[in-house]
Amino acid sequence: MRLEEGVRCLKGVGPKKAELLERLGIHTVYDLLTWYPRAYEDRSTLTSIADLRAGEKASVSGVIMSLSEKQAGKRNMTLLTAMVSDGTGFLQVTWFNQKYLKQKLKQGTRIFLTGKAAYAYGGRGNYAMSQLSSFQILEEDETADASCGIQPIYRATERLNQKFFRQMIQKLLEDMEGLPEVVPEVVAEKYQLMPRMEAFRNIHFPADAAAMKAARNRLAFEELYLIQCGLMVIKKRNREGKRGVRHLQDSRLMRQVASSLPFALTKDQQKAWESIRRDMESTVPMRRLVQGDVGSGKTVIAMLALVKTVENGCQGALMAPTEILAEQHYHTFSESLGKFGIRVGFLSGRLTKKQRDEVYEKIRSHEMDIVIGTHALIQDGVSFAHLGLVVTDEQHRFGIAQRAALEKQGDLLPDVLVMTATPIPRTMTLTVYGDLDVSLIKELPPGRKPVRTFVRHPERRTLIYDYVLKQIREGRQAYVVCPLVEMNEELPLPSAEEVYEELRYGIFRGIPCGLIHGRMKAADKEAVMQAFHAGKIKLLVSTTVIEVGVNVPNASIMVVEHAERFGLAQLHQLRGRIGRGPYQSFCILVSDSRTETAKERLRIMESTNDGFLLAEEDLKLRGPGEFFGAMQHGLPDLKIADVLTDLDILLKARQAALETMEREQDMRQVLSLLSLQYREHFSHIMET
Ligand code: ADP
Ligand code: MG
After folding, report:
1. Which residue's alpha carbon is nearest to atom 27 within ligand 1?
2. Is any atom of ligand 1 closer than 6 Å to the C-beta of 580?
3. Can you name the CATH fold of 252-441?
4. Quick one: fold of 40-153?
5. In this predicted model, what pLDDT tens digit does every residue of 529-558 receive, in sequence order?
6. Which atom of ligand 1 is nearest to the CA of 441?
7. Which of 299, 443, 548, 574 to probe ligand 1 with, by most ligand atoms within 8 A of CB?
8. What is the number of the ligand closest to the CA of 294?
9. pLDDT band at 148 (very low <50, low <70, confident <90, very high)
10. Can you give the pTM of this predicted structure?
11. End-to-end CA, the chain
12. For 550-584, how does the pLDDT look when each residue is reduced to its tens digit (9 = 90+)?
């Protein structure tokens, strides 16, 4: 039996079962083998009811003697109570609001329970399970004695139940004698990994808790190790044998631009710039990620790199995720670089066809040195004469494929610089961005006062906006962010349009207000943004279109309406629009949300300005699935390793992968496995 064979080859799986398995995403034997338990129940340590102790966690096996159901409480909960006996005493167990259980639990049903015991005050039993953490209805032929050991609990469905999975996997493990080893012997030895077959046995049917842990470690290691190997090969292939544009050491133009900067670079900026310069001067194409919290000053780094490529007779491209941001970069760059004779151009979807063709022509004939734009930059028709460097700002909005399209221009591979303010936890930079080198900018430019954040109930809106007015009277500018553009009958939330009308005819009468949102025409958006930049608009009501990159240092106060509607990382980005100048800035999160998680999230915003910490929290609250999904990374889902908690294993796996890369033979073995297990993700590396 081969692992990549369809499940139909297994005894006991006919067309019907196969289809049900398909629905769970189990297609091959390997998929079934890696259908890891979602939990376990430890039957190796059964306690008899007579030996239970209040307050202690225990597992009990017994038979249901009687069942009763009643309604209780204000919200009319259904309480289902069972009296369970194992011959030594009675244990009372209660389930809340689980009506479907009534059909499953009957008098005489044998059941296995884990939970915390408590005295059954007033109840009929000796004890009650005060906190039931898991229970399992036992099949007739099953006994829950110690010989059952630790039992797996699978993600099952009504028609594919626990028993089915247990039997199928048990049988599979018995039949599978010679499973090929994935991890080279040297690695297995050095990192003391449990043998593969043993790991599969113990992940499904652990001999004891220690064996289960060792098995999990090994399988998580294997998973991360394989992905790391794949990423390293991609990284190597991208660079080896291909030549990148070779930039020379800084000369006059660079010195002129550098000395024209109105500030000195911070230490972190200097470090990042040093690495970039080194990468650019090498013939190996640069692939670098600059990760810096909002406001840490990434733009100037991008500018220096782009000037360097221009000094070397090449062209540079800067790609931004939004029209607004592209415009802003265009203005900053034209202003700072025009005086040195550097020709800066702009390209976006809002240009007319004629304008666009003109820009295309200038790019082709090298009459433009630096082109700034949106994804219009990578559409057909754009062809650079000498592309030396591509910078993408907030690249996680761009697919990997789009990045590749830009990289393909020209004979020599251009250098690539990726900038992001989305603080990505370390575990993820090592996986999702494993093919890039990373520079961190943690420090903010000097003189910044940390933004002070407050969560406030909407009852206090008048007070809040009075305060905004006061700030505006002192010469500052303000943002008001709303979750929706226009009224929506289904969502009873104030829209940006409504709030704008309310404010400009109310408290802010006589003060120049502006409105900006994603549905406006690009030219209108630009006009509003320009006016806000120039200080002509004092109060800007917006949606999240201002989320990334917008830089107006005079803005010192932001009100976010219905703050609970935004993610933490998003709120942090929004908040990054203020606190960019020398003024004390304030962020007021307006919310009447009463759920604990929502409150907790907003409290975290109040307590920290550290984007990295917020990203970790966001990841914990929302789970890696959603977080990963949003990144569109194009990597396989992890089946067993956990990006949050397995940093230690990841670091080891990465080290091991580095070592493997040195050994040709091992590498080839690993690669063939990779293309087998992660066909969709890594098959392209096998092509060459
Ligand atoms: P981000 O990293 O969020 O893209 P920006 O590049 O927009 O940040 O920089 C934010 C602000 O900080 C800009 O007004 C920029 O001119 C300023 N700035 C950048 N670096 C420094 C520095 N070393 N010293 C002082 N101000 C700086
Ligand atoms: Mg930026």
Report:
1. 445
2. yes
3. Rossmann fold (3.40.50)
4. OB fold (Dihydrolipoamide Acetyltransferase, E2P) (2.40.50)
5. 999 999 999 999 998 888 777 889 999 999
6. 2
7. 299
8. 1
9. low
10. 0.67
11. 30
12. 889 999 999 999 998 888 878 988 999 999 888 99
